[in-house]
Write a structure and sequence with these properties.
single chain; alpha+beta; Porin; Serine Threonine Protein Phosphatase 5, Tetratricopeptide repeat; 2 domains; 14-stranded antiparallel beta barrel; two-stranded antiparallel ribbon; TPR-like_helical_dom_sf; Tetratricopeptide (TPR) repeat protein; Slam_C; signal
Length: about 450
């Protein structure tokens, strides 16, 4: 006995994870973004120390040690303008000091002011007897400036690993369910109930941007793909891919500073166990505005036409064919130089050919990431701890006649996720994720919970 909804739930889980991951990774990039740095103390203690050092600078403006400490704390707190102005004042008392020029170059780089960053890096390299490690660091930054200053930019990530799930099939643990066909509850056999499994997974995310010669406009393309191979339940081996391409317009031409509008086309699809399951295509638009140097707001809308494909194992999949509309409002904020927060409001409307498969969904997702000093003394790169929570409510348009003649299906879904990224070489990280998901439905057949744990590696480029 097979229930196609299991696969729908699994795909929704994968798609949501990819969509949120992409939004948080892609949309926080831009000229307002500061690269987080490890902070060894709380923000309140840093601010108190900054205030104390500021008073010392006023009393003794030529004290370079005090000024440099103030600039370092300002950088850690995410106040890059204060750090830059302090270091530039220090150059009055110590003109041509390579240490100051290097740090100014790094700060301007973090603000995406690449011309100014290059100026300071070149000045530092012109000093006599530059240490080799400093020269290597500057060469790395200059190479990054060359890449980011070109008309075209390319970036991405690839991750792979293994995952265990307590309920890989996303099926109910109930022994029996109520149906409209039988007077007594229908007893489920083991094959129709939740079962744990391991899988191997791989995900690829690519982003390409080309600057147009017109007021800051761009052509952007993103590609996402994801696939799993199950150890036992090979009937739910899955694959997913989606491409989005379109222009992004700089709205400063209309007086809207730090604001852009992206418009894009969408094409994608899923397969299950080597069978085509879904083809989709549509359009989307996103309004992105930087409220401050540390805060970004993104309002997005997407439309997809979804064509589900019947197969031997899923002969009624095409009943789900129809239109899907999705809206989101996402706020991203750097609380300090090493703590990033995000929150998303989501609304989803699916109109399927069969009314009891049509639904509307509203959800809220929140999360944070913290860059922490590595516990390994010789490791300079920080470890990143992430935490996310989410809730969604789904209400279907009409009763499913298999389970009720007068009550529509309603689902309440919640999840929690804890992740840790540990760098082990340049552009490589170990990634581990612990998660829990619970779906509570008034149709018992669709209620389930699932614990998961994964271990993998991530390559960024």
């Amino acid at each position: 006995m097979r229930y196609p909804i299991r696969n729908i739930v699994l795909f929704s889980t994968v798609f949501t994870a990819l969509a949120l991951g992409t939004a948080s990774a892609q949309e926080v990039t831009g000229k307002s973004t500061v690269t987080p740095r490890p902070v060894s103390a709380s923000l309140s203690s840093i601010e108190a120390e900054r205030a104390r050092l500021f008073e010392q600078m006023l009393a003794d403006p030529s004290n370079l040690d005090v000024a440099f400490r103030y600039a370092a704390l300002s950088s850690e707190a995410g106040d890059l303008e204060a750090a830059i102005s302090t270091l530039e004042r220090m150059l009055i008392y110590a003109p041509g000091l390579p240490r100051l020029q290097l740090e100014l170059g790094v700060l301007y780089f973090r603000l995406s002011a690449y011309d100014m960053a290059r100026t300071y890096f070149n000045a530092a390299l012109a000093a006599p007897a530059v240490p080799e490690e400093v020269r290597t660091k500057i060469d790395t930054y200059i190479a990054a400036i060359d890449a980011r200053s070109s008309d075209s930019q390319f970036s991405g990530s690839f991750s792979t690993g293994i995952r265990w799930q307590s309920n890989a099939t996303a099926a109910t643990d109930a022994r029996s369910i109520e149906t409209t066909f039988f007077p007594d509850p229908l007893v489920l056999n083991d094959s129709a109930r939740g079962d744990g499994d391991f899988n191997a997974y791989a995900a690829l995310n690519l982003r390409y941007s080309y600057d147009l010669a017109s007021q800051g406009d761009k052509i952007e393309a993103t590609f996402q793909s994801y696939g799993t191979l199950q150890a036992e339940h090979t009937e739910i081996n899955t694959g997913y891919a989606e491409l989005q391409v379109g222009p992004r317009f700089n709205l400063e031409r209309f007086g809207l500073d730090d604001t852009s509008l992206a418009v894009y086309g969408i094409a994608g699809g899923y397969y299950i166990d080597s069978d085509s399951y879904l083809y989709s295509g549509g359009v989307g638009a996103a309004l992105i505005t930087d409220l401050s140097i540390t805060t970004r707001l993104v309002f997005g809308n997407e439309y997809r036409r979804e064509a589900f494909q019947d197969s031997f194992d899923r002969p009624t999949a095409s009943d789900r064919t129809g239109d899907r509309y999705r809206s989101s409002l996402t706020l991203q904020h750097f609380l300090s130089g090493n703590v990033a927060l995000w929150a998303s409001l989501l609304a989803d409307r699916r109109l399927a050919d069969v009314s009891y498969l049509s639904y509307q969904e509203f959800g809220l997702n929140v999360g944070l990431s913290i860059d922490m000093d590595s516990p390994i003394a010789t490791q300079a790169d920080p470890w990143t701890l992430g935490f996310a929570l989410g809730y969604a409510n789904r209400n279907y348009d009409s009763p499913d006649p298999t389970y009720s003649l007068d009550t529509e299906q309603e689902d309440n879904e919640a999840y929690a996720e804890l992740s840790l990224l540990v760098p082990f070489k340049e552009n490589w990280e170990f990634q581990t994720v612990l998660g829990y998901r619970n779906v509570n439905s008034n149709y018992d057949i669709y209620s389930y919970d699932n614990m998961s744990a994964s271990l993998g590696v991530v390559r960024r480029f």
